[in-house]
Amino acid sequence: MQRIFDHVIKKYIYSEDYLLLTFYVLLPGDKQFQPFIHSILRACAHFLRGLFSPKDFFTRPQEKTFAIICVGRAIQEIQELIERLKGKSFPCRIGPHRLSIRYLVGGTNILGADNLPLVLERALSAAQKGTFIRV
Known about the structure:
4 helices, alpha+beta, about 30% strand, elongated, single chain
């Protein structure tokens, strides 16, 4: 993620808009599903990829966190996406079990003066609140 930030975003920040969305997956606490955590996270990745453009950057900076760097999308469009997705879940099937996996979602815009840790912290804070933090 740092390489994308340094070699793409910093290089083109003044010619293209960049936004960062984070999804924090709320994994099931039931011990019977612990062996299937990677399958659940793969299902989450598949669900999320369907929501974004191929030109967006899809990353996973932490085990339960997915971060998508959106390129050239309007803030209002992303705010509406967050509103549509917050409080929802995605379906996941593990053997005979059908699970609904919940997540927290939020985002922020990226400015030329930003660094990756600051932007990621801001986006994670937004996800905890289910909102978009505009700076």
